[in-house]
Amino acid sequence: MNNRAMIQLEQVTKIFNAGRVNEITALNNVSLQINEGEFVIIIGANGSGKTTLFNTIAGSVIPTKGKVFIAGENVTFLPDFKRSKYIARVFQNPFDGTAPDLTILDNFRLAALRTQPKHLTIGNTTAFKKRVREVIARLNWGLENKLNQPMGTLSGGQRQALTLLMCIMDNTKILLLDEPTAALDPKSAEIILNTAQHLIQEYHLTAIFITHNLKDAQQYGNRLLQIHEGKLVRDLDATAKQKVLLQNMYEWFG
Ligand SMILES: Nc1ncnc2c1ncn2[C@@H]1O[C@H](COP(=O)(O)OP(=O)(O)OP(=O)(O)O)[C@@H](O)[C@H]1O
After folding, report:
1. Whole-angstrom Cα distance, residue 137 to residue 183?
2. What does the pLDDT look like over 147-166, one tens digit per residue?
3. Does the beta carbon of 48 lie inside 6 Å of ligand 1?
4. 44, 66, 215, 239: which is deepest, by most CB within 10 A?
5. CB neighbours (10 Å) of residue 201?
6. How many angstroms does the Cα of residue 30 sit away from the middle of ligand 1?
7. What is the pLDDT of residues 55-77, one digit of tens each?
8. Distance 50 CA to ligand 1 centre (A)
9. What share of the chain is helix, strand, coil (3-state, %, to 5)?
10. Which domains does the chain have, with CATH numbers?
11. Residue whose CA lies nearest to ligand 1 atom number 18
12. Is it the case that residue 250 has pLDDT exceeding 80?
């Protein structure tokens, strides 16, 4: 791991419904640096600001105050589609990341073209198909032999795993995992998180994983953050994280 900052937040505040009775400060003066290759776990109670933090990094939420940098570039006011060359995201709902009527192969084609000019013919070659087969084969689910099957015929776990694998088709630098296994059975969840861990190491991705599962928070990643009422209240490096017991984490929730 090196010390090149991939994500930087400088005193970021996000206030929703400013000036109204339902005003809420979702992020409160958050400063954070995440370096290239880090795999950061974020925990925090419901409504503490985790998803708003993701949205701020991804560009679907623009901060009320403060600055956001990605790979050294000030992206504070850059809309999400202009940051997508850096960022891939896996959401909680397994059906959010894929097109059900398209085949597995066509979904991978779309993913590979996400940040490319639309006239490119990438994805039509034998080499591309071979790569997709190899990438999918790592799941050991036999899906590499079903490339022409519509995505909508697969289970939620299978679709979520493929969504994750599609993230690495277009040189993504940052992987945002927003409770990607919350809707899945334990075995599928384990396969997806282990796959994520391998991809992060192999492709030297910078990753953030939001989870309510404290066992996963303990098991995965090399840094642990806790958000409480819009503030970063804990930031543990790999060594400190390894020493944390599940019981400690439960107690942090008060
Ligand atoms: N678009 C929005 N408009 C108004 N309020 C919002 C909006 N998005 C989030 N909030 C509020 O900001 C606060 C933080 O929400 P956020 O979704 O970031 O929390 P979270 O930690 O991800 O919660 P959960 O664990 O339940 O997903 C909450 O009070 C939420 O209601």
Report:
1. 23
2. 999 999 999 999 999 999 99
3. yes
4. 44
5. 12
6. 15
7. 999 999 999 999 999 999 999 99
8. 8
9. 35, 25, 40
10. 1-84+206-253 (3.40.50.300), 87-171 (3.40.50.300)
11. 49
12. yes
